[in-house]
């Protein structure tokens, strides 16, 4: 449930100015190395489904995901400022638009959370920058040796059995390698993010 993705354009740039009984509905819920994360950021991430699995997260979990995203994207910005291809950004946008409720336009979805069009586009760019960085840094390094793949297969034979019959390793080797690589990659990314959090100044406000 990874955020990843330069300054503060990680921020949703939410303009939370909707008044209720004369009060502005917004508050700072955390600071990350001096950059603020607001309640509006959390609300926008949930309502716009900008974070994978946001629907199933508590506010605290979603805030943690936003903090991790802020840290990882700021880290990525240290190594590259290249913008991803416009076609890729457009594809990412279309994939997101497909998650909107039928009849909901992008403009109306953004208006509900007070988010600007430019901020949404930058969010998608950061998604792509982060994905490219993670692939470059962690995917190749996570590939298992044949010995590691064989050991994994022997430990998880039941996962590959079909109708109670265990297949030969050679027949499922590509899938075994894919699973091992995915697990190793996830573990390395988790360790990397933990290191970023340990070195960062993070303050959560209740």
Describe this structure as you would to a colleague:
The model is unreliable at 1-24 (pLDDT under 50). The protein has helices spanning 39-47, 59-77, 86-97, 106-113, 117-139, 146-155, 157-160, 169-199; strands at residues 19-20, 23-24, 28-32, 35-38, 202-204. It has 206 residues and is mostly helical. The chain has 2 domains: 1-139, no CATH class; 143-200. The protein has a 3-stranded antiparallel sheet with strand order 4-3-5. Strand 3 and strand 4 form a beta hairpin. The protein is globular, with a radius of gyration of 20 Å.
In short:
By secondary structure, this protein is mainly alpha-helical.
Show the helix and strand layout.
Blueprint: E1 19-20, E2 23-24, E3 28-32, E4 35-38, H1 39-47, H2 59-77, H3 86-97, H4 106-113, H5 117-139, H6 146-155, H7 157-160, H8 169-199, E5 202-204
Antiparallel strand pairs: 1-2, 3-4, 3-5
């Amino acid at each position: 449930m990874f955020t990843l993705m330069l300054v503060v354009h990680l921020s949703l740039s939410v303009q939370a100015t909707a008044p209720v009984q004369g009060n502005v509905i917004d508050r700072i819920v955390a600071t990350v190395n001096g950059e603020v994360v607001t309640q509006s950021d959390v609300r926008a991430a949930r309502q716009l489904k900008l974070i994978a699995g946001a629907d199933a997260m508590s506010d605290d979990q979603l805030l943690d995901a936003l903090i991790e995203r802020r840290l990882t994207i700021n880290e990525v910005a240290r190594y590259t400022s290249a913008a991803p291809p416009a076609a890729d950004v457009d594809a990412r946008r279309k994939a997101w638009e497909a998650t909107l409720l039928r009849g909901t336009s992008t403009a109306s979805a953004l208006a509900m959370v007070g988010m600007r069009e430019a901020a949404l586009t930058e969010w998608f760019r950061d998604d792509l920058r982060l994905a490219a960085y993670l692939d470059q840094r962690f995917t190749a390094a996570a590939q298992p040796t044949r010995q590691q793949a064989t050991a994994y297969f022997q430990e998880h034979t039941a996962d590959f059995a079909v109708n109670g019959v265990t297949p030969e390793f050679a027949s499922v080797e590509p899938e075994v390698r894919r699973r091992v690589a995915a697990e190793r990659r996830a573990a390395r990314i988790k360790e990397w993010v933990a290191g970023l959090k340990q070195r960062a100044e993070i303050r959560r406000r209740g």
